[in-house]
Write a structure and sequence with these properties.
Layout (H helix, E strand, L loop, with lengths): L2 H27 L6 H26 L5 H18 L1 H24 L1 H23 L5 H16 L25 H9 L9 H25 L3 H10 L2 H4 L6 H23 L4 H15 L8 H12 L4 H19 L1 H10 L17 H8 L5 H7 L3 H4 L1 H4 L2 H15 L4 H23 L15 H20 L7 H25 L6 H8 L1 H6 L5 H10 L7 E4 L2 H7 L3 E4 L6 H5 L3 H10 L4 E4 L5 H4 L3 H6 L4 E7 L2 E6 L7 E10 L7 E2 L2 E2 L1 H7 L20 E4 L2 E5 L6 E22 L9 E22 L4 E11 L5 E12 L7
Parallel strand pairs: 1-2, 1-3
Antiparallel strand pairs: 3-5, 4-5, 6-14, 7-8, 9-10, 10-13, 11-12, 11-13, 11-14
Helix pairs in contact: 1-2, 1-3, 1-4, 1-8, 2-7, 2-8, 2-11, 4-5, 5-8, 5-23, 6-7, 6-27, 8-9, 8-11, 8-22, 9-22, 11-12, 11-21, 12-14, 13-21, 20-22, 21-22
């Protein structure tokens, strides 16, 4: 790996180019001196997207253009901007030096500030460590990475979105999002190629840190000292820390959304500079539109707020409509217009398979996402920021409390009013969507994170007011007590981030492993992540000519060299239209599918088609391996041998069982709790002793596996609503602690009120001697199941395929 090229790319993309871009914007807008820090940071965040715009038009105008020519064009753009804003760029450098000297003096004068600066550096280091050491396994971000790889290799924008699998190497990713972020990822491939994500990780790290800086600066504008409170509130959200390895695209869209909104907040103060100020703010909003489709809400939120506040200023409104709006649409609306011409709406994931009547895709998706009732839409929409602790922790409640305190203080500025009106408009849109059952602004609980950057400055300022009022008390007013309190708070925050990093699969060796051996080695060395277990199961298919059908096609395509096909691909339509599982099996064979990956989630293409019954059929599919519901199935060609052992259970009620808490599996707790049945673990049992090897206790079944058993068939009658998993823990003979098993989940299906028989099949390892079986509900916390007539069968080893 060429470290020198990576360093040069990072210095140019995340250092020199944003600085020059901000200098050019300063020359155009010419804001007042107090506005320069916030204005500069907003331009710095938006700067890399201008490279995406250039790549888009280069790939459109010159299909197949060489990377060297693209690099030359980007350098030419940089040169033009640098020459235009050279004086302002020099002023920014001098201003940064003055700020550095001032902060150095403050650190020398105050021990408390030194402690805070030290902990801030520790937090930044932890964020860097997470970005560089955590495996990238999220389905959405892998789609972006593969989109960028296809665009980079083809040098052509006509392949995006990836709907023509004949031109994309079999990849199929329908997407309505604009190509700004995929093109930014493609730009990160220029130094080392599309097989490495080192530059991409550095870029997302820079996005995170610049976003924190922008948030702290915006909060400091409302009240001195509120910047640290804003950073603590932001980092205290599990949405940011715990899932930082999955939501890199969300971090980029939130940062660019906030940067564009901040430019709009500064517009009233620089409007007297003339049309150039409106030009800069319109260009910022246009760049944000290219990052993510949700940025389209900038137009009603920011535009409506400015129209409301300055409805009597005719000159302001005229410049807003004739300069800012056309520039914004001219830069960022091209993809929305193309999508409108293709599908009839500006934002729409057009997938022909989803329009099949047999799937009832849109109604079922509404149920799966908990949007089927008005109450659920409220919980997943306007209220999710305050009640969804899994994503936002207690930061949402603290944010609301701080915002209320700041409102009562009366310290309101123009920026605070614009941010508040924008957030109120988004809340209103979410409420309208919840009432009208329109899944636009409430598709999932993460959507409300769009207004978090708008509420953070005022909320942090309010919390700072509260802390200062507490600080006036006799006890807390002592410097030693204040230093200890700040240090304890930051230590707790650093500990939370460190623990989430370890829980997410980051170890001390993984950043070095990434730099030395790359992403594929990093994922294969990851333990505790079910997606990595699937990759290792695929690796076991050495020398086999396979094609894998999967709803996780990005995972297979990015980390393996096996051929794959997406469940959303139009070629799968005959499989879903098949009248039975035999016909579906024949269609899969016609497509060349030999293996199927099943994820824990269930869509209508699974349970409304013969696909799920096919996976549960012992003579058509067998589970080879997996973990926590991520299972690799192999399509079989022969039926298994007759059952070696069979047993029935009359009733096993199973209602609202969930063994997960904050993504921590509780299986070992159950293993310890039921340790009194350890007498069942008899590796040397005689056939006579195998006549009653089952015990049912509180929804947990202990199974003694016959010595020559191989495949396990589990059948049960299920009624209820939601998704049900059967979780097996393998007890391996010869281990010091027989209860330290290996969790293995089998998907039992998704139900919507009906009663039916379900079947699951798994191939056990040779050294397994016992199983612990329990049942787990996922996806929908309001679902309920009843499990009856549990039947378990053991089969001998399945004969090899002929």
């Amino acid at each position: 790996m060429d470290v020198f090229l990576i360093a040069c790319w990072f210095f140019f993309t995340c250092g020199l180019f944003p600085l020059v871009f901000a200098g050019g914007a300063l020359r155009l807008a010419r804001p007042e001196r107090p506005d320069i820090p916030l204005f500069t940071l907003a331009c710095v965040v938006l700067a890399p997207l201008s490279i995406s715009i250039m790549l888009y038009w280069l790939y459109r105008a010159f299909p197949g253009i060489a990377p060297v020519a693209v690099t030359g064009c980007v350098c030419a753009l940089f040169t033009v901007v640098a020459v235009y804003g050279r004086r302002e760029t020099g002023e920014l450098i001098r201003l940064a030096r003055r700020y550095a000297r001032a902060w150095r003096g403050r650190l020398h004068a105050s021990s408390r500030r030194r402690y805070i600066a030290c902990f801030v550096c520790i937090l930044a280091g932890l964020l860097a460590y997470i970005h560089m050491g955590r495996p990238i396994l999220g389905n959405d971000i892998l789609e972006y990475l593969l989109d960028a790889r296809v665009i980079f290799n083809a040098g052509d924008m006509s392949v995006y979105p990836l709907l023509d699998s004949t031109r994309t190497g079999g990849l199929y990713f329908p997407s309505s999002h604009p190509p700004g972020f995929p093109l930014l990822v493609a730009w990160s491939y220029f130094p080392v190629g599309p097989d490495s994500t080192v530059c991409f990780r550095l870029m997302t790290l820079w996005h995170s840190l610049s976003w924190l800086g922008l948030t702290a600066t915006a909060a400091g504008r409302l009240r001195r000292g509120a910047g640290m409170a804003a950073v603590v509130l932001l980092l205290g959200m599990p949405f940011i820390c715990l899932r930082i390895g999955h939501l890199e695209a969300d971090i980029a869209r939130l940062a660019t959304f906030q940067a564009a909104f901040m430019l709009g907040c500064l517009l009233p103060g620089i409007a007297h500079r003339g049309w150039r100020a409106f030009l800069v703010c319109g260009a910022g909003a246009g760049l944000a539109l290219t990052a993510h489709s949700i940025s389209l809400l900038l137009l009603p939120m920011l535009g409506g707020t400015l129209l409301l506040l300055y409805r009597r200023d005719d000159r302001f409104l005229l410049m807003l409509v004739t300069v800012a709006l056309p520039v914004c649409l001219g830069i960022g609306a091209f993809h929305y217009i193309a999508n409108m011409l293709y599908t009839g709406v500006p934002i729409h994931d057009y997938v022909p398979v989803w329009e099949l009547d047999i799937l009832q895709w849109h109604s079922d998706l509404s149920f799966i996402r908990n949007l089927d009732t008005f109450a659920n839409r409220l919980l997943n929409g306007p209220l999710s920021l305050f009640i969804n602790a899994r994503l936002y922790g207690i930061s949402g409640i603290l944010l609301l409390a701080g915002y209320a305190i700041f409102l009562r203080s009366g310290h309101h500025s123009t920026m605070h009013k614009i941010l508040s009106y924008g957030a109120a408009m988004y809340f209103l849109m979410m409420l309208i969507c919840a009432c009208a059952d329109i899944p636009l602004a409430i598709k999932n609980p993460r959507y409300i994170a769009t207004i978090v950057p708008l509420l953070l400055p005022s909320g942090a300022a309010g919390l700072t007011l509260f802390l200062n009022s507490v600080g006036k008390t006799a006890f807390y007013g002592k410097p030693a007590v204040q230093t200890a309190a700040h240090g304890a708070g930051l230590c707790i925050l650093a500990g939370v981030i460190a623990l989430t990093a370890v829980a997410g699969g980051v170890t001390f060796s993984q950043p070095l492993l990434l730099l030395r051996d790359g992403d594929k080695a990093l994922v294969r060395a990851t333990v505790g992540r079910p997606e990595a277990a699937v990759i290792r199961a695929i690796d076991a298919l050495v020398g086999k000519d396979v094609r894998i059908l999967s709803g996780m096609q990005p995972l297979v395509a990015f980390y393996t060299d096996k051929a794959s096909i997406s469940e959303h691909d139009v070629r799968c339509e005959p499989v879903y239209r098949a009248p039975g599982k035999e016909e579906a099996f024949a269609e899969l064979r016609r497509l060349g599918v030999t293996h199927i990956i099943k994820a824990p989630w269930n869509f209508s293409m699974h349970y409304r088609t013969p696909l799920l019954p096919l996976l549960a059929s012992p003579d058509q599919a067998v589970a080879l391996g997996g973990e926590r519901g991520y299972t690799l199935f192999e399509l079989a060609a022969t039926a298994p041998a007759p059952p070696l052992l069979e047993a029935d259970f009359p009733s096993a009620p199973c209602t609202n069982i969930d063994l997960r808490f904050l993504h921590v599996r509780m299986a070992r707790l159950f293993q310890r709790f039921y340790s009194n049945v350890s007498t069942l673990i008899r590796p040397q049992a005689t056939p006579a002793e195998e006549s009653a090897p089952f015990i049912l206790r509180n929804n947990v079944v202990w199974i003694h596996v016959p010595k020559d058993g191989g495949d396990l068939i589990l059948r049960a009658d299920v009624s209820g609503r939601g998704t049900l998993h059967a979780a097996f823990t393998e007890i391996v003979a010869g281990k010091r602690d027989p209860y330290e098993g290996i969790p293995f989940l089998v998907d039992m299906g998704t139900f919507a009120g009906e009663r039916r028989e379900v079947t699951a099949r798994v191939r056990l390892r040779d050294d397994v001697r016992a199983l612990m079986l329990f049942f787990q509900e996922t996806d929908n916390p309001y679902s309920k199941h009843t499990l009856e007539n549990l039947r378990i069968k053991f089969y001998k080893k399945t004969p090899p395929e002929v």
